[in-house]
Amino acid sequence: MGAGVTVAVVGATGAAGQTTLRILEERKFPVRELRCFASERSVGTTVTFHGEPIPVRRVEPAAFRGVEIALCSAGSAQSREFAPMIVAQGAVVVDKSNAFRMDPAVPLVVPEINAHAARQHRGIVASPNCTTIVTVMPLKPLHDAARLRRVVATSYQAVSGAGVNGIEELRRQTLAWAQGEPIVPRFFAHQIAFNLIPAIDRFGDDGYTGEEMKLVHETRKILEVPDLLVAPTTVRVPVFTCHSVAVNAETEAPVTVARARELFAGFPGLRVCDEPAAQRYPMPVTVEGQDDCFVGRIRADLSHPRALSFWVVGDQLRKGAATNAVQIAELLLRS
Whose CA, among 67, 285, 290, 293, lies 20 to 30 Å from 318? Predict the structure, then answer.
């Protein structure tokens, strides 16, 4: 592809899109030309890339001629409409929405885990849900060492996972509380400031939400274990950035705590922060802005001889979205 490639960022004005632009800069991705796209109301505005203003364009077929890689941070409905059109113009699409993740013909990729899957693409590569990415990072080394049998995962998800509206909702409600004003939910179903909402996405007939079922199905697809038992619970918490997940993992062979620490420490993109006596463990305020996922509170399950419990935190705007997508784009360049 020469000295650089023509890259499109769709959804460039949103939280994930803005982070994508920063990650492209930070990782020195070889961008020869950048084209940015967003919704109709943003057309004509600009975003900044390497200190230069880049105009936001309208999404239309002609605008993607010559684009080689398109990073899409739009919603599922938009991705279903735009991605095939972009592919038809000759680009490979890395899509961050839920539109194609469970399509058998579309690889679902976390580069540290299943980079090989990206080579099987037919024009679209899907990036997993942010919570799934944070969860599977420590699961992969455990699975390779001892084969996973069952996973119980409870997520504590930051408001920025819901986009700029989620960020603004928490900020506005916190200010209202500080000023003694009424707190009125406008975006989330309930007050999010100083509260927990144990429901993300719509409920199914079985009582599980769409967000919870993403964690089930995507984990199975990424790890290539279609019958893996996964019990999920997802909770929205009043944190601006970083998703945290409490995980209990049962394996076929026993894994000691010491061995688990070794496995986690040796896995790319994963860092161990586990010194309980010194009050050192992963927290959103210390993980925010970093690409690695951090794991701690590693301990044996008191109720099962072949299970471990641990706590993992990841910046869902970076590794959970933008960084993972750019890493996929890097895989595409190398292949």
Answer: 67
56-72 in b/e form (b: 16+ CB < 10 A) is bbebeeeebeebbbbbb
Instruction: Write down all domains in the chain, each with its CATH number in brackets.
Output: 5-127+321-334 (3.40.50.720), 132-315 (3.30.360.10)
CA distance 246 to 54: 40
- 277's tokens: 């006596």
Determine which one of 143, 242, 243, 273 is catalytic: 243
- Respond yes or no: is residue 72 known to be catalytic: no
> pLDDT tens digits for 282-326?
999 999 999 999 999 999 999 999 999 999 999 999 999 999 999
Torsion-angle region of residue 289: left (phi > 0), alpha (psi -120 to 50) or beta? Answer: left
d(CA 234, CA 214): 10
Specify whether the backbone of 14 is left (phi greater than 0), alpha (psi in -120 to 50) or beta: beta
- In this predicted structure, the answer to whether residue 75 has a pLDDT above a threshold of 90 is no
In 3D, which of 90, 36, 33, 81 has the Cα closest to residue 58? 36
Catalytic residue among 36, 72, 130, 242: 130
Can you read off the two tokens belonging to residue 125?
A: 């590569």
Cα 7 versus chain centre, distance? 20
CB atoms near residue 28 (< 10 Å): 7
pLDDT over threshold 60, residue 1: no
Q: Please tell me the distance from the alpha carbon of residue 52 to that of residue 31, in angstroms, as a whole number.
A: 13
Cα gap 41→213, rounded to integer Å: 33
Q: Which contiguous run of DSSP H or E holds residue 220?
A: helix 210-223
User: How far apart (Å, rounded) are the C-alpha atoms in residues 123 and 26?
Assistant: 26
